[in-house]
Automatic annotation (TrEMBL):
<keyword id="KW-1133">Transmembrane helix</keyword>
<keyword id="KW-0807">Transducer</keyword>
<keyword id="KW-0325">Glycoprotein</keyword>
<feature type="transmembrane region" description="Helical">
    <location>
        <begin position="194"/>
        <end position="223"/>
    </location>
</feature>
<keyword id="KW-1003">Cell membrane</keyword>
<keyword id="KW-0597">Phosphoprotein</keyword>
<protein>
    <recommendedName>
        <fullName>Thromboxane A2 receptor</fullName>
    </recommendedName>
</protein>
<dbReference type="InterPro" id="IPR008365">
    <property type="entry name" value="Prostanoid_rcpt"/>
</dbReference>
<dbReference type="GO" id="GO:0005886">
    <property type="term" value="C:plasma membrane"/>
</dbReference>
<dbReference type="GO" id="GO:0045907">
    <property type="term" value="P:positive regulation of vasoconstriction"/>
</dbReference>
<feature type="region of interest" description="Disordered">
    <location>
        <begin position="337"/>
        <end position="364"/>
    </location>
</feature>
<dbReference type="GO" id="GO:0045777">
    <property type="term" value="P:positive regulation of blood pressure"/>
</dbReference>
<keyword id="KW-0675">Receptor</keyword>
<feature type="transmembrane region" description="Helical">
    <location>
        <begin position="153"/>
        <end position="174"/>
    </location>
</feature>
<dbReference type="GO" id="GO:0004960">
    <property type="term" value="F:thromboxane receptor activity"/>
</dbReference>
<dbReference type="GO" id="GO:0006954">
    <property type="term" value="P:inflammatory response"/>
</dbReference>
<dbReference type="InterPro" id="IPR000276">
    <property type="entry name" value="GPCR_Rhodpsn"/>
</dbReference>
Length: 364
């Protein structure tokens, strides 16, 4: 079907030549990829629910809510997009004939943008939460509740959803992409397409930059507190665990998404034709983010690390533990001679320490 006035916009292919090639990919790869990601996120979600029920730390429970939002987002993203791709390889359907009104193509494009931006936005939001929690713990403890934390997750979803809906009102457009199994934003010199491409790219890059900056400051602050003179005033083991997980989430998002975001921005700014081959490579690369994210929490938990490395020296102890240790050390220091003696010997020592009555008569 050639582009014409009667051709729907999503099939006009104003940016790149579209090629219908159902034999270009393999269903086994897509099915295995989706199954691995769905299973990983499902396991992570079950572990998160159990941790939420067992945790007694408020900051930890808030962080788990954000993690649960991230896991749900990744799971739904793989489920929706994977269903479209797998069904394409099973049926070899040509969307230009099956979906002449572009409803499925627009929905697929919206899903790609929404489930692509959500992990980046949630990562930046988690970085902000940890930054406030570490640097302003008292202000955070009075202002943040579980209800507000859930509201923040919903606001992230709402913001990403608003961006994904922009092409439906004329700001940008979604187009079918080679080999015909998916739709994505149209990177073309047209003003609306150009602006929407840069919006998608810059929002993602800004989220990564904010995460990197705030996580770096939080990490430096946490190291200073843990190694400083006041290291035993607050419980730090949960905070270090959360910080390690957040750093890993940020690293995975950066490695997986930066090539695609930079590629889109570079193509839009240069005005050069888009390289379909690189687009496919970077899209598949970005999808690994949804598979690797859940394993950060599944593997990098204190309970798991203790089993793998029993001798691991986890961070600082709580106040009560420090106080008990201090009391025991003081008791041993004040009574060194009694610490290693039996009860009978202790009684003898105590009796020997009693001064005998004086035998010297007072002078007249």
């Amino acid at each position: 079907m050639n582009a014409s006035n009667n051709t729907p916009l999503c099939y006009a292919n104003t940016s790149t030549p579209y090629m219908y090639a159902p034999d270009m990919g393999k269903i086994y790869f897509s099915a295995s990829f989706s199954a691995l990601g769905l299973t990983s996120n499902l396991i992570a979600f079950i572990v998160l629910i159990k941790s939420c029920q067992q945790t007694k730390s408020r900051s930890r429970s808030f962080f788990l809510i954000f993690l649960a939002g991230l896991v749900v987002t990744d799971f739904m993203g793989l489920l929706v997009t994977g269903s479209f791709v797998i069904s394409f390889y099973i049926t070899w359907v040509d969307w230009r004939q099956f979906d002449p009104t572009c409803h499925f193509c627009n929905f697929m494009g919206m899903s790609m943008v929404f489930y692509g931006l959500c992990p980046l936005l949630l990562g930046a939001t988690m970085a902000v939460e940890r930054f406030v929690g570490i640097n302003c713990p008292f202000a955070r403890s009075t202002n943040i509740t579980k209800g507000r934390t859930v509201s923040m997750v919903l606001m992230v979803w709402f913001f990403a959803g608003c961006i994904s809906l922009l092409p439906l009102i004329g700001f940008g457009s979604y187009h079918i992409q080679t080999p015909g199994s998916w739709c994505f934003l149209n990177i073309s010199p047209e003003r609306h397409d150009w602006a929407f491409s840069l919006l998608f790219s810059f929002v993602g890059l800004i989220c990564i930059a904010v995460s990197f900056l705030l996580n770096t400051v939080s990490l430096v602050t946490l190291i200073k507190v843990c190694c400083g003179p006041d290291r035993n005033q607050r419980r730090r083991d949960h905070e270090v665990e959360m910080m390690v997980q957040l750093i890993l989430i940020m690293t995975i998002a950066t490695v997986c998404w930066c090539p695609l975001l930079v590629f889109i921005a570079q193509t839009a700014l240069s005005g050069s034709p888009m390289n379909v081959r690189y687009l496919l490579i970077w899209i598949r690369f970005a999808t690994w983010n949804q598979i690797l994210d859940p394993w950060v929490y599944i593997l990098f938990r204190r309970s798991v690390l203790k089993r793998l490395y029993p001798r691991i020296d986890l961070p600082q102890r709580s106040i009560m533990t420090s106080y008990a240790s201090f009391s025991e050390n003081m008791r041993r220091f004040t009574r060194p001679s009694l610490g290693n003696l039996s009860s009978h010997d202790k009684e003898n020592v105590e009796k020997s320490n009693v001064a005998p009555p004086s035998t010297v008569k007072p002078s007249a």
